[in-house]
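Supplementary Methods S3. Input chains for the assembly prediction are listed below.
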Amino acid sequence: MLRVAVIGSGPSGVYTAQTLVEQDPAVLVDVLDRLPCPYGLVRYGVAPDHEKIKSLQNNLRTVLEHERIRFLGGVHIGAGGVPAARLRELYHAVVYCVGAATDRHLGIPGEELPGSWSATRFVSWYSAHPDAVDDGFVRGARSAVVIGVGNVAVDVTRILARGEAELRTTDMPQAALDALAASTVTEVHMVGRRGPSQARFTTKELRELGALPGAEVRVDPAELALDPSYTDPSGLPAVQRRNVEVLRGWAAAPPRNTPRRIHVRFYLRPVELLADGGRVGAVRFERTVPDGLGGVRGTGAYEDIEAQLVLRSVGYRGLPLEGLPFDDATGTIPHSAGRVAPGVYVAGWIKRGPTGVIGTNRPCAKETVMSLLEDAPVLVRADVPEDPVAALRALGAQPVEWSGWQAIERAEAELGASLGRGVVKLPDWPSLRGAARGEAPRRSAELPDRSRASRAKHPA
Ligand code: NAP
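Predicted structure tokens for the full assembly:
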């Protein structure tokens, strides 16, 4: 049997594991994750009000319950955890599917002022990531600026503009729900440095902003008209053409009297965050115009937009991994068809950068798996332990197995029931670890069916 460790249980890791067992009947896969919970950004990045995308967890679950795939949560690989070199001794091959773990920076003055945060930090907080801290994001804020016009910017804009009633039905942790319910933010400005036809958001996501019951979208037609494609979008690719059409509709709509407003702005490049009383008070933008090459140039005219909360949503970035090469310019690990070296592979965002939709990870994983299986004859060694879990424990790891994750799921269902909500996520390490050990109260009659199936595979 070929023993493979897949590091990371988000879509790229799970699709890698799935492709491995589909392509080769003699492969055993351990999917290791630093967190005790699986699913990566599907659990900790997809917005809580995107229930349909979140339901993809059910597909990922089916894969992780495959008889030749095992989930081992709570195992950190690298500095402070299991050394990467030791991991190589425990498995015939290792595939890193660790995503792009940090955010990109603007590199402008004032970026680090209190009240200015990366969008990923805000997303982690309302998604109950156990490393997230409550930065008081919306507390005391009237106006928020979101810098960037990608789908993450749309997500955080929407969450800021949604009312409590709509958020209550999600699995958002209670503290974040309470804070957002008390939010006094009435103006949300989502700002792009280029034009509407270069925005990175997709049309379905953009349209959702116009469907929020308590908020209206405002777009300045004069700003749209700076884009040469505005008057005739017919030459644009389909997504951009539809985006421009949606924006045109909003620009032509009369104002409504809603409690909150979303201002979608273009051709404004952030140059400085301005302080007010020791925290951010406004963002200074320079007006830009198209340069005729798809980029923009500054005009020397400036506009300040008031903001007590600034969310920088300018993309993710990969981090270097112990003992592996790293391309600092792209934030990715150099590879050839997913192969870093025989026995070491990459898939997902750490391989190709933070782009594409969840489904993009399927062909990406397949390419990597094909490289790995091509190498298989030279990878098989006799000195790989029968079961690496004992070795991982000896190295200080405390793996959370599938039954532990299921105990977390039960605890989250019970927490939600006690709050009169649906499932509510546990937001911190002690409660996740405690729940995984079965410390949370349980009522076995309420166990979901899927728990029973898996209990047979992984007896407690
Ligand atoms: P993204 O799509 O790369 O968008 C980043 C945005 O930041 C762009 O508008 C970019 O403008 C802007 N930007 C970059 N540097 C800037 C700077 N220095 N100053 C001002 N603006 C700057 O990144 P993302 O929104 O983080 O999304 C990452 C990936 O996740 C994407 O593939 C996205 O589609 C996906 N995602 C999908 C969903 C969904 O399907 N619902 C939800 C969330 C995320 P320029 O174009 O001018 O560089």
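The pocket of NAP is lined by residues 106, 147-153, 155, 192-194, 198, 200, 205, 270, 313-316, 354-357 (CB under 6 Å). The radius of gyration is 23 Å.
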